[in-house]
Amino acid sequence: MRVVLPGGTGQVGNILNRALTDAGHEVVVLTRTPRREREIHWDGRTLGPWAEAVDGSDVVVCLAGRSVSCRYTTANLLAMMESRVRSARVVGRAIEAAARPPALWLQMSTATVYAHRFDAPNDEATGLIGGSEPGVPGYWAYSVEIARNWEREQELADTPHTRKVALRSAMVMSPDRGGVFDWLLWLARLGLGGPVAGGDQYVSWIHDRDFVRAVEFLAERDDLAGPVNLASPGPLPQRAFMRALRAAWGVPVGLPATRWMAGLGAFAVRSDTELLLKSRRVVPGRLLEAGFAFEHPRWPAAADDLVRRVRAARGRVPARPARVRR
Questions:
Q1: Which residues are CB-neighbours of 106 under 8 A, at least 6 positions away?
Q2: pTM score, whole prediction
Q3: Could you read off the pLDDT of 104-154 as tens digits, one per residue?
Q4: How far is CA 20 from CA 15, 61, 254, 304, in A?
Q5: Of the four listed, 214, 231, 271, 285, which is most buried by Cβ atoms within 10 Å?
Q6: Three-state secondary-structure class, residue 48
């Protein structure tokens, strides 16, 4: 099949590009800075010659949007909102204008749309949408609003011949440099991989190979549309998550961090504490109901696999992970 990846040069885009290309599919990447074969320039805002790649394609997987690996200042939050909404809108317009529109449009979204909670998991049918939880920073609601507006642009697009799925993805764990697993492993290796602010907050995640398999599964089916959670069925508290990661690498101790220490750490790496402190207890209700079988449903075994791949690929792991790519 012919797959178009708008915004496909980041971590998730590279994972999909490699896997789909290796499987024999034709992959075209839309990027602001094309450097390789099958990369086409677009600005993520306006229609242009790039839309010809969408016309006649089988699947579009829109991954565009400003990286969340930044301080959540007002300017950065506005940039996240604008980049996500505008890119989804212009992809919709390209599909609307196509003489041969793709059969499927997978639009990246985020598990952050769900509420910060500890009491029960969030699936697509019964999960609580966030934005009004008591006792959390006010700007967390804006992250939820970004996700809702992101998905709304896809919903509003007039694409009657194209099935639309919003990928409410948890953190994608892969051995790639600059990804979230790279940073977490670096912290664990430094002895800093202990519980943060008590460690009761849930971590939702998905192994990179299950992410790819889920995308392929959605492309093969014709009966799934709307929001779909891309997350393992085994979210777990941050304390247990980091304990399993330390065990996979062989680090016996992880120093705990208070909330204010987490704030200092996030500031040092130019990130935000929401990524550490929000409890994302998300489960893949619709995927499981449709019969999708996860290869890596539980974190300890998934962490073992990822660590093995890191060691096989790198030999010696650099002292500090690469900057997360957008």
A1: 59, 60, 61, 62, 165, 167, 215, 218, 219
A2: 0.93
A3: 999 999 999 999 999 999 999 999 999 999 988 888 999 999 999 999 999
A4: 9, 12, 37, 24
A5: 231
A6: coil
